[in-house]
Design a protein that fits this description.
Blueprint (H helix, E strand, L loop, with lengths): L4 E9 L2 E6 L2 E7 L1 H10 L5 E5 L11 H10 L4 E4 L5 H9 L4 E4 L1 H5 L2 H10 L4 E10 L2 E6 L4 E6 H11 L3 E6 L11 H10 L4 E4 L5 H10 L4 E4 L1 H4 L5 H10 L8
Parallel strand pairs: 1-4, 1-12, 4-5, 5-6, 6-7, 7-10, 10-11, 11-12
Antiparallel strand pairs: 1-2, 2-3, 7-8, 8-9
Pathway: Amino-acid biosynthesis; L-histidine biosynthesis; L-histidine from 5-phospho-alpha-D-ribose 1-diphosphate: step 5/9
Pfam family, one: His_biosynth
Family: Belongs to the HisA/HisF family.
């Protein structure tokens, strides 16, 4: 049985960790390096750092913050936001990231996935999919969830896998920040369509939501931000609740 992972996510804008609802109404929550270091020491299985305004602002991810964060965490560290070229991938891996996430640029040029995977290995390449429900299914959203591409999210997940992605970071735009639970229907649809690991993101409000997504889908990891950043629950509390409900959770 695959061991499930619990992952805090740091959405960073202008050098500060922020969080919103449905990708808007952002509020400032803290310093990324300090928060990442604390999570690393208190049981997080991985940490994801997303520079959420880099793409819309047409700039590179903040490499200095990435480098300092990498020096202070001792678990796998994924970085995304503003990745447009193979040089961006190279720069982030050299700065200390273990994996690099890509979204808008991968949609615009799927060969970026292939090129990055061929050069660095699929295990380093995470394709982030922000999906929103429409009448005809889930559409891929880009540019921080603000642009509807019209692309079917399930088909795009299959394409990303074929192009060499090693993992999918799936975020439901509809449930993001709402705290009513992960989008089980969306998550199951994506997980069942591909073979590579999927991280569920968007909507977690308590430890039972982690247990639910692990029980109802074959997702390999669950990600949350608000419940950890606001000290509502700790990573350890989430792990204990999952274990109580029979989930095979990673020990720390």
């Amino acid at each position: 049985m695959i061991v499930k992972r619990i992952i805090p996510c740091l959405d960073v804008k202008e050098g500060k960790v922020v969080k919103g609802t449905n990708f808007v109404s952002l509020r400032e929550l803290g310093e990324p390096v300090e928060m990442a270091s604390a999570y690393s020491k208190t049981g997080a299985d991985e940490i994801i750092f997303l520079d959420i305004s880099a793409t819309n602002e047409g700039r590179q991810t903040m490499v200095d913050i990435v480098r300092e964060t990498a020096e202070n965490v001792f678990v796998p560290f994924t970085v995304g936001g503003g990745v447009r070229t193979i040089d961006d991938v190279t720069r982030l891996l050299r700065a200390g990231a273990d994996k690099v996430g890509m979204n808008s640029a991968a949609v615009a040029d799927p060969e970026l996935i292939s090129e990055s995977s061929a050069r660095f290995g699929a295990q380093c390449i995470v394709v982030a999919i922000d999906a929103k429900k429409y009448e005809d299914g889930w559409h891929v959203m880009t540019h921080g969830g603000s642009k509807d591409t019209g692309i079917d999210a399930i088909e795009w997940a299959r394409t990303a896998e074929q192009k060499g992605a090693g993992e999918i970071l799936l975020t439901s735009v509809d449930t993001d920040g709402v705290k009513d639970g992960f989008d089980i229907e969306l998550t199951k649809a994506i997980v069942d369509a591909i073979r590579i690991p999927v991280i569920a993101s968007g909507g977690c409000g308590n430890p039972d939501h982690f247990a639910e997504v692990f029980e109802k889908t074959d997702v390999s990891a669950g990600l949350a931000a608000s419940i950890f950043h606001e000290d509502t629950y700790s990573v350890q509390e989430v792990k204990e609740r999952c274990k109580q409900q029979g989930v095979n959770i990673r020990e720390t």
